[in-house]
Write a structure and sequence with these properties.
With 261 residues, the protein is α+β, with helices and mostly antiparallel strands. Helices cover 14% and strands 34% of the residues. It contains four helices and 17 strands. The radius of gyration is 22 Å and the shape is elongated.
């Protein structure tokens, strides 16, 4: 049986019976387009079991909906009823359609924590490697605002180098936006997902260890102090925070005045 995990709420659902039959007949690796059966989604089956689902971007008057991504797992069990499920400390358990005893534990989420990330690419990406975790204090501030009852829309401004970023959260959308306070066209997608706590720590530790102990000459902040802020090395080999370079109009290196595009 194939099940999928909503990355926002952490809720687990089995696919419908007709989609189950389609997926069971596929070989791995393969990409299966489900069309109108499932929101024009494509299920990507991989040999290592790291299956996932993507949905296309939808344009609309309020910005539409960006492409979606969620985990997909195959478990050994009969097709279970979505009407008979409970969440326990061990994860999600489903019972059969006939109401027989609960027999399956799927996708434990007891070690998952709410994690806020921004997309490193200008356009929405379903690839997990393109999403960067906010610093712990920013994550805590966002989560604190998120948990306030009735706080459906809120903003948080954070300093980044010599500029600032405004994170705009609107709960009526699955994904949110980050805007540069100086350059309005510099925007990124933002999301809140549930991730394994050890995985989040691993991402942050990796970013810190792979970051050279140099200083951005524009904001005078070391890169080890700002591991989650993207950097850019110019053709002249000088490196700066991308946010610090953005306001430079003449496109010349602040150190050697070499031109860059």
């Amino acid at each position: 049986m194939f099940i999928h995990l909503d990355p926002i709420s952490g809720v687990v659902e089995p696919y419908s019976s007709d989609i189950q039959e389609i997926l069971k007949e596929q070989s791995t690796p393969s990409d299966i387009y489900l069309g109108s059966k499932c929101f024009n989604a494509t299920v990507h089956l991989r040999e290592n079991g790291a299956h996932y689902q993507t949905t296309p971007e939808i344009s609309g008057p309020r910005g539409g909906k960006p492409g979606g991504y969620r985990e997909v797992r195959q478990v050994t069990a009969r097709l279970l009823s979505t009407n008979n499920k409970i969440q326990t400390s061990e994860g999600w358990r489903f019972s059969t359609r006939g109401g027989s005893p609960i027999e399956l534990v799927a996708l434990p989420i007891n070690n998952r924590v709410a994690t806020w990330q921004w997309c490193a690419l200008p356009n929405f990406s379903p690839d997990m490697e393109d999403w960067i975790c906010y610093e712990s204090d920013v994550n805590d501030n966002l989560e604190r605002a998120w948990t306030i009852e009735g706080n459906d829309n809120f903003e948080l401004v954070i300093p980044v180098g010599i500029t600032s970023k405004r994170i705009i959260v609107d709960r009526s959308h699955a994904f949110f936006r980050q805007q540069d306070t100086e350059i309005s066209t510099n925007q990124r997608w933002v999301r809140r997902i549930l991730m394994e706590e050890t995985w989040v720590s691993r991402i942050r530790d990796s970013s810190m260890h792979n970051c050279p102990d140099d200083v951005c000459a524009i904001c005078i902040c070391t890169y080890t102090e700002t591991p989650m802020i993207s950097r850019r090395t110019l053709p002249c080999k000088h490196t700066f925070h991308c946010a610090c370079l953005a306001p430079i109009r003449d496109k010349r290196c602040p150190l050697c005045r070499a031109q860059f595009s």
